[in-house]
């Protein structure tokens, strides 16, 4: 099966868990986009939900496909959020998210959710976070160079994310520093250390937040639940 089919398979399985009347967090990224479409199909068949989007682009997609949207101000308690991830650490199911630039709103919605279901293809599974790619860190544009130096003192090589020759701007108007730390042995400790840096808005480390991870690969679907870190 090609990658998109695997993503769609995981997305459809997650949307099966949505019940009538739920407030549903709508994730961001290519896998989450399949979940939005699958949810919209169920809405067209009569399912009643309120969607809480984690990005402007997800909001546009959801509205275009007929999902009614709300805000966290109206619905501070989210029943279920379905979102993707860039890396999933086997065992405790800590995540790296943010390669799509939506980590801040995703983390806020995830924290307001009773359940966070992550949907991935099997290529996202790692032994250690940081094995495949960088850790995105959302930072204030003011003094970002000093913030980058502080991140490098933690061991990460910080690169300002660019788009069309300009600094990439998140929905919140911030910059993103893609930080290569290499394999991260203790993600919770690193997350806490990054959070203490003035200028950091949020990191893409989601530790202890996933309720389950739905993984699609050639052999079918597997639902992982968190277990203690080895
Ligand atoms: O900022 C974007 C989000 O964290 C995405 O969920 C994550 O990057 C995974 O995206 P994709 O499903 O496209 O690999």
Automatic annotation (TrEMBL):
Keywords for this protein: Isomerase
Active-site residues, record numbering mapped to chain: 106
Pathway as given in its UniProt record: Carbohydrate degradation; pentose phosphate pathway; D-ribose 5-phosphate from D-ribulose 5-phosphate (non-oxidative stage): step 1/1
Alphabetical list of SUPFAM superfamilies matching this protein: D-ribose-5-phosphate isomerase (RpiA), lid domain, NagB/RpiA/CoA transferase-like
Short name of any one Pfam family annotated for the protein: Rib_5-P_isom_A
Reactions that this protein is recorded to catalyse: aldehydo-D-ribose 5-phosphate = D-ribulose 5-phosphate
Endpoints of the signal sequence: none
Entry GO MF terms: ribose-5-phosphate isomerase activity
Xref: InterPro entries: NagB/RpiA_transferase-like (IPR037171), Ribose-5P_isomerase (IPR050262), Ribose5P_isomerase_typA_subgr (IPR020672), Ribose5P_isomerase_type_A (IPR004788)
Database matches in CDD domains: RPI_A
Coiled-coil portions: none
Residues holding substrate: 28-31, 83-86, 97-100, 124
Enzyme Commission designation: 5.3.1.6
NCBIfam families documented for this protein: PRK00702.1, rpiA
Subunit structure: Homodimer.
Function: Catalyzes the reversible conversion of ribose-5-phosphate to ribulose 5-phosphate.
Family: Belongs to the ribose 5-phosphate isomerase family.
Protein name per its UniProtKB record: Ribose-5-phosphate isomerase A
Organism: Gloeobacter morelensis MG652769
Gene coding for it: rpiA
């Amino acid at each position: 099966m090609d990658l998109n089919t695997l993503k769609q398979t995981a997305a459809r399985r997650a949307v099966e868990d949505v019940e009538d009347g739920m407030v549903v967090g709508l994730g961001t990224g290519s896998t989450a986009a399949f979940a939005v479409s699958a949810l919209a199909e169920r809405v067209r068949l009569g399912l009643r939900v309120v969607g809480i989007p984690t990005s402007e682009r997800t909001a546009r997609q959801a509205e275009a496909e007929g999902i009614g949207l709300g805000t966290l101000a109206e619905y501070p308690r989210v029943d279920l959020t379905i979102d993707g991830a860039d890396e999933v650490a086997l065992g405790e199911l800590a995540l790296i998210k943010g390669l799509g630039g939506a980590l801040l709103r995703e983390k806020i919605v995830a924290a307001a959710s009773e359940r966070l279901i992550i949907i991935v293809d099997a290529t996202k599974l790692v032994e250690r976070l940081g094995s495949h790619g960088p850790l995105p860190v959302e930072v204030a544009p003011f003094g970002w160079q000093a913030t980058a130096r502080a991140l490098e003192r933690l061991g990460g090589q910080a690169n300002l994310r660019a788009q069309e020759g300009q600094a990439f701007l998140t929905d919140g108007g911030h910059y993103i520093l893609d930080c290569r730390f290499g394999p991260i042995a203790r993600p919770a400790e690193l997350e806490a250390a990054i959070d203490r840096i003035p200028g950091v808005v949020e990191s893409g480390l989601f530790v202890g937040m996933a309720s389950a991870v739905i993984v699609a690969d050639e052999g079918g679907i597997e639902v992982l639940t968190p277990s203690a870190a080895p």
